[in-house]
Amino acid sequence: MGIEENYVQIVSRIRKAEAEADRAQGSAGLVAVSKTFDAEAIEPVILAGQRVFGENRVQEAQGKWPALKERHAGIELHLIGPLQSNKAADAVALFDVIETVDREKIARALAEEVRRQGRSLRFYVQVNTGLEPQKAGIPPQETVAFVTLCRDQLGLSIEGLMCIPPAEENPGPHFALLADLAVKAGVQKLSMGMSGDFETAIAFGATSVRVGSAIFGTR
């Protein structure tokens, strides 16, 4: 199948998963993860109706998205990869949503850039639900306090939480933990689930799923 057919099939699977979880149609959005793919591969998905895309690296996104945004109205770009504070200015200038706020230093850098540039971005706090030392994210037990710091002291618009469960574990308990933390932190959105487990994430309340390889193919 081509990229367009893959995209249509993924959207259909999302709608089916919503129905099976007794959720409203459209309650789980799709972030199409276009990292490592060029504009030529991305454009058919835009033409098929997708408007929300995810990228891992600021520099790569800068090379393709300004022109794509100029050609296509209504694009919403999410940063879903780790962010260094020296890239905060570029990230705030290009992205609409940053899903990987995971430490105070980056939160402060982002807050300063939002004020300096006068942009209105939305943010997610990334939670390291598996406490994996090699993975970014705030520890679960620190999440509520960190959301409060970001929102109340720094003025960041924190709308949700994001996680990437350990690859070798059942993702369900991690999704359940993130959903519980979101309630405690007073945020509404849950970015969880990828190509291999997004239907499970929808069953646990994901409001957006991040799907790349199942649409664009292997990188």
Ordered list of secondary-structure elements with their pairings:
Elements (H helix, E strand, L loop, with lengths): L2 H18 L8 E5 L5 H9 L4 E4 L2 H14 L4 E4 L8 H7 L2 E5 L2 H14 L4 E6 L15 H11 L4 E6 L8 H14 L3 E3 L6 H6 L4 E4 L1 H4 L3
Parallel strand pairs: 1-2, 1-8, 2-3, 3-4, 4-5, 5-6, 6-7
Question: Could you describe the 3D structure shown?
Answer:
With 219 residues, this protein is of the alpha/beta class. Helices cover 44% and strands 17% of the residues. The protein has 9 helices and 8 strands. It has helices at 3-20, 39-47, 58-71, 88-94, 104-117, 143-153, 172-185, 198-203, 213-216, and strands at 29-33, 52-55, 76-79, 97-101, 122-127, 158-163, 189-191, 208-211. An 8-stranded parallel sheet has the order 7-6-5-4-3-2-1-8. α6 (143-153) packs across α7 (172-185). The longest helix is centred in the first third of the chain and has 18 residues, at 3-20. The mean pLDDT is 96.
In short:
The chain has helices at residues 3-20, 39-47, 58-71, 88-94, 104-117, 143-153, 172-185, 198-203, 213-216, and strands spanning 29-33, 52-55, 76-79, 97-101, 122-127, 158-163, 189-191, 208-211. The protein is α/β, with parallel strands linked by helices and 219 residues long. The chain has an eight-stranded parallel beta sheet.
Key phrases:
alpha/beta, 8-stranded parallel beta sheet, globular, 219 residues, 8 strands, single chain, 44% helix
